[in-house]
Amino acid sequence: MSVTVLNHSLIKHKLTNIRKTQTTTKDFYQNVNEIAGLMAYEITRDFPLKPVEIETPICKSVQYELANEVVIVPILRAGLGMVDGIRSMIPTAKVGFIGLYRDEETLEPHEYYAKFPETVKNSIVLLVDPMLATGGSASSAITMLKKRGCKDIRYVGLVAAPEGVRTLQKDHPDVPIYLAALDEKLNENGYIVPGLGDCGDRLFGTR
Ligand code: PRP
Ligand code: URA
Fold first, then answer.
1. pLDDT digits (tens, 9 = 90+) for 163-198
2. Which residues does uracil bind (predicted)?
């Protein structure tokens, strides 16, 4: 399935802001949300519409609304940093949650939480996580969503390593991947190069 790296000057500018070491927690969180909102605007460009009959102050008219419900599913924790930005573009979206953490030595993902709206399986699911490194977390999250019957899943991330893209394409060839940047590689500790460091820690001020 397709990999789309969104080509937008504002996205590139804000991504540069969050890559800088000196960016504060407040500015980091704000820029991540702004990038997520801009990405949502681009990704939803061709979402299916349905005709609806409405009444303007002047006359009856047939206009268009989104045909499908949208569910945003952040992978905890770092995915939480993208939710508000996407909701500012799609305020009717519901939100589910997947709790996963990467074991720092084996880099294997471990599941600790899952909660979804009842409508998730018939919705367009935007699975969001800023970082696609080995791809293990995103691949496990997609497997969890598919087990719950989700059929239309789209992965939305900020920065990816080629290794993570390859893993997702191999494990879930039906899931389109949307990115703000495709970086060079993973380093020996499983961090994306040049990347932006530990996204969860930088979003929430932890270490
Ligand atoms: C980070 C990131 C992804 C994952 C990516 O989360 O937010 O979920 O690593 O790595 P992968 O592609 O190799 O699986 P982390 O496990 O550090 O948890 P956190 O969001 O709670 O900090
Ligand atoms: N998770 C992060 O937060 N950053 C990386 O570079 C890789 C995984």
1. 999 999 999 999 999 999 999 999 999 999 999 999
2. 192, 197-199
Token pair recorded at residue 69: 């419900």
Predicted structure pTM score: 0.96
Span 68-105, pLDDT tens digits = 999 999 999 999 999 999 999 999 999 999 999 888 88
DSSP state of 122: G
Query: Which fold would CATH assign to domain 3-204?
Result: Rossmann fold (3.40.50)
Determine the distance separating the centroid of ligand 2 and the alpha carbon of 68, expressed in angstroms. Answer: 32
Is the separation of the CB atoms in 18 and 31 below 8 Å?
A: yes
Query: Residue 9: beta bridge partners?
Result: none
User: Using CA atoms, how far apart are residues 104 and 160, in angstroms rounded to an integer?
Assistant: 18
Residue 72: strand pairing partners: 95, 126
Residues at the annotated binding site for uracil? 192, 197-199
In a 10 Å sphere around its CB, with 0-12 CB exposed, 13-18 middle and 19+ buried, how is residue 206 labelled? exposed
Nearest CA to ligand 1 atom 6: 101
Give the ligand with the smallest distance to the CA of 200. Answer: 1
The domains of the chain are located at: 3-204
